[in-house]
Amino acid sequence: MIENRTRQARLAGRAEVARGPLRRGLGLMGRRGWSDWDGLVLDRCGSIHTFFMRMPIDVVYLDRQGTVLRADPAMPPWRVGPIVRRARTVLELPAGTIARTGTQPGDSVTLPASA
Q1: How far lies 49's CA from each of 38, 80, 82, 90, 100, in Å?
Q2: Can you give the pTM of this predicted structure?
Q3: Do 73 and 9 meet the contact criterion of CB atoms below 8 Å apart?
Q4: What is the spatial distance between Cα 13 and Cα 2, in angstroms, rounded to a whole number?
Q5: What angle do CA 105, 82, 59 make, to 5 degrees?
Q6: What DSSP line would sit under 57-114, residue for residue?
Q7: How many CA atoms, within 13 angstroms, populate the side-chain half-sphere of residue 96?
Q8: Fewest CB within a 10 Å sphere: which of 32, 62, 95, 97?
Q9: 16 falls in which pLDDT band (50, 70, 90)?
Q10: Would you kindly state where each structural domain of the chain is located, as residue ranges?
């Protein structure tokens, strides 16, 4: 589970952790959709792309302590995200999650124990 402690809001009930360059590179490519409670945790990552994706996603960049550095809502397919300095982890979430939870820079996020 991924939670925004600052807002006391759940970002994802189920979170897949992508480790290693191959799994991080593949990310959500080719998926047609996912539930509102899914999420993908990209460990040791400071930038993402949405090439070959079929749906927009919300993107949250976190530092080592789990503090939100940047939150980009509804990033469309076929885009390249910014390089976020100090980002250690990137969360890919269903579009609408950032708005639903009010997540913004400075918030504190709890990651799954396996992340």
Answers
A1: 18, 4, 9, 11, 23
A2: 0.88
A3: no
A4: 6
A5: 50
A6: EEEEEE-TT-BEEEEEEEEPSS-BPPP-TT--EEEEEETTHHHHHT--TT-BEEPPTT
A7: 7
A8: 32
A9: confident
A10: 2-107
Structure tokens at 13: 């009930």
Phi, psi of 58 (to 5 degrees): -90, 140
Say what the pLDDT of residue 70 is.
98
In the CATH hierarchy, which fold is given to the domain comprising 2-107?
Jelly Rolls (2.60.120)
Angle at the Cα of 110 (from 106 to 113), degrees rounded to 5? 150
How does pLDDT run across 22-81, given as a tens digit for each residue?
555 555 555 566 666 688 999 888 999 888 888 899 999 999 999 999 999 999 999 999
pLDDT of 78: 93
pLDDT in tens, 76-105: 999 999 999 999 999 999 999 999 999 999
- Per DSSP, 49 falls in state B
